[in-house]
Amino acid sequence: MEAEIESAYFKQVYIFASLSDEDIRAFMGVARRRTFRAGEVIFHRDDPGQVLYVIKEGKVKICLISPDGQEISLVVFGKGEYFGELALLDGLPRSADAIALEKVECYTLQRSDFHNAIMKNPKIAIQVLEVLSKRLRSTDQQVEDLIFLDVYGRVAKKLLELAETHGVQVEGGTLIDVRLTQQELASMVGASRESVNKVLGYFTDKQFISTDKHRITLHRLSDLKRRIY
Question: Same structural domain for residues 96 and 204?
Answer without folding.
Answer: no
